[in-house]
UniProtKB/TrEMBL annotation:
This is Ferrous iron transport protein A. Coiled coil: none annotated. One of its GO terms (molecular function) is transition metal ion binding. Residues 2-74, 84-156 form the Ferrous iron transporter FeoA-like domain. PANTHER family: FE(2+) TRANSPORT PROTEIN A. Keywords: Iron. It comes from Paucilactobacillus nenjiangensis. The keyword Iron applies.
């Protein structure tokens, strides 16, 4: 994981967290720059024109100060990611689906429910005995058995 200012090449990246004071984090969140969103670097910060990104259908120029506060991960770096089982996440933890294990039928069923690679999820609630786990995926709530959730590997995002 690196900040946007540390990157020296073009490519697709996922925002892991946004650092800084509350006002700046809130302002960037209003623009949509939150953990789990993807950005594409068009011009790296080392160039004379500064950092230019493609984000949510628009080209944006980012100052060096703000670029130092946005921590990202390359989309192709999944093997170096710190993976956790979905069933191990606490309430209000967020993550990006990185890999699914289990049988072919289970993987197909999970993908049919919207759990595909690169999808942002958030644990919304956990039953008192730990089973099922309620998550928010693609804007809707989904309950999964703990055994099924343990087959979904995610990378945590948005940690302090």
């Amino acid at each position: 994981m690196k900040t946007l200012s540390e990157l020296n090449g073009r490519g697709k990246y996922v925002i892991i967290k946004v650092l800084g004071d509350h006002k700046l984090v809130r302002r960037l969140a209003e623009m949509g720059m939150i953990a789990g969103k993807s950005i594409t670097i068009i011009t790296p910060a080392s160039g004379p024109t500064g950092l230019t990104i493609f984000f949510q259908g628009q080209r944006l120029a980012i100052s060096d100060d703000i670029a130092e506060r946005i921590v990202v991960r390359n989309m192709s770096d999944e093997e170096t990611a710190d993976l956790h089982s979905l069933s191990d996440l606490a309430i209000s933890d967020s993550g990006i689906v990185t890999k699914m294990t289990g049988g072919k039928e289970l993987r197909k069923r999970l993908m049919d429910m919207g759990l595909t690679k690169g999808t942002m999820i958030k644990v919304n609630n956990v039953a008192p005995l730990g089973d099922p786990v309620e998550i928010i995926v693609r804007g809707y709530k989904l309950s999964l058995r703990k055994a099924d959730a343990s087959n979904v590997l995610v990378e945590k995002v948005g940690e302090g």
